[in-house]
């Protein structure tokens, strides 16, 4: 186990380094740059722009800029926002809880709903329920997240008035936990839509594979109740591949959170990333990129460890 953790730690550090190099290069090679928003300001001179570029270190070669940024990052200094001169780490940590709350709620909805649909589809194979579930999953995988979010807002906020159209709480506050949950429902369901489709299809395939194995037929031959065979034998074995799926789906969930937060004006990292890209606030964008990569790697590591705990046949060496 120790060797496995050490190996995964080394791999994670290498991947983080590669992500940082690619992200830094793509951002700084894009046309315009952070000074583009000032270039069109009336009365600003080229000398003033050059002075600002020197202050930001943008007049240095790209490798020099990257090395300076990496040294500050390793020292705990993530830099300051070009937009409001706030520390990048403080800005991101202020938005991170909202994103984690949204992702956690969405994954709970997706797992509970998707697993149930997958199990029912497997034990009722080729039934009307199974066919409707298959069609629904294909539709959910085909619908863009932003479009589904706008439809939810139009139906349940504009027409019916059941749900708020956005934000994390009512402006002015005072609503408490119920007000917060009321605002959380719509974005969490929209973010969970694709995950429900994915989990239901994988769960159906995994359950079908398990219930056709010899040990399930043996359990039935021994006279065990069908419910016991299903939930205590088939279900436990069918869930093992789902643990690995949870880690693999982490990047997809992060990407979906970006779109969902934008549609519902949810004050999380996704909304912050979009605003920072619009202002060409590169330090904040790089900070969000590193945090997102770290969350994805931690999700995969946690999935591997849980799989080893759940299945003794897996040996982590």
Q: Could you describe the 3D structure shown?
A:
By secondary structure, this protein is mostly helical. The chain folds into two domains: about 1-75, no CATH class; about 90-310, MetI-like fold. Helices cover about 75% and strands about 0% of the residues. The chain contains 14 helices and no strands. The chain has helices spanning about 1-30, 35-40, 45-55, 60-75, 90-125, 130-140, 145-160, 175-210, 215-220, 225-240, 240-250, 250-265, 270-280, 280-310. The longest helix has about 35 residues, at about 90-125. The protein is globular. The chain starts with a helix and ends in a 7-residue tail after the last helix. The model has no long low-confidence stretch (mean pLDDT about 80).
Give the helices and strands, then pairings.
Layout: H1 2-29, H2 36-39, H3 46-56, H4 62-74, H5 88-123, H6 128-142, H7 145-159, H8 176-211, H9 214-221, H10 226-238, H11 240-248, H12 250-263, H13 269-278, H14 282-310
Helix pairs in contact: 1-14, 5-6, 5-8, 5-12, 5-14, 6-8, 7-8, 7-12, 8-10, 8-12, 11-14, 12-13, 13-14
């Amino acid at each position: 186990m120790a060797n496995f953790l050490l190996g995964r730690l080394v791999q994670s550090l290498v991947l983080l380094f590669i992500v940082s190099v690619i992200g830094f290069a793509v951002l700084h090679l894009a046309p315009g740059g952070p000074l583009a928003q000032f270039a069109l300001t009336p009365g600003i001179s080229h000398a003033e722009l050059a002075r600002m570029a020197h202050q930001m270190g943008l007049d240095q070669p790209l490798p020099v800029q990257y090395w300076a940024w990496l040294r500050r990052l390793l020292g705990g200094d993530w830099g300051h926002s070009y937009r409001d001169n706030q520390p990048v780490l403080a800005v991101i940590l202020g938005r991170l809880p909202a994103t984690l709350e949204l992702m956690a709620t969405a994954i709970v909805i997706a797992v509970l709903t998707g697993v149930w649909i997958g199990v029912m589809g497997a034990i009722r194979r080729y039934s009307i329920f199974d066919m409707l579930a298959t069609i629904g999953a294909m539709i959910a995988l085909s619908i863009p997240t932003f479009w589904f979010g706008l439809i939810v807002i139009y139906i349940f906020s504009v027409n019916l008035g059941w749900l708020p159209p956005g934000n994390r709480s009512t402006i002015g506050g005072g609503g408490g936990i119920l007000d917060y949950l009321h605002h959380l429902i719509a974005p969490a369901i929209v973010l969970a839509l694709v995950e429900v489709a994915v989990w239901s299809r994988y769960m159906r395939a995994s359950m079908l594979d398990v219930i056709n194995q010899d040990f399930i037929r043996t359990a039935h031959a021994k006279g065990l109740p069908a419910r016991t065979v299903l939930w205590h034998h088939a279900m436990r074995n069918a869930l093992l591949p789902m643990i690995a799926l949870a880690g693999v789906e982490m990047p997809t969930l992060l990407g979906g959170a970006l779109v969902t937060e934008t549609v519902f004006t949810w004050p999380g990292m996704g909304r912050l990333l979009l605003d920072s890209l619009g202002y060409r606030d590169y330090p904040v964008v790089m900070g969000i990129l590193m945090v997102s990569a770290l969350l994805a790697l931690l999700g995969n590591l946690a999935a591997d460890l849980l799989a080893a705990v759940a299945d003794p046949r897996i040996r982590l060496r």
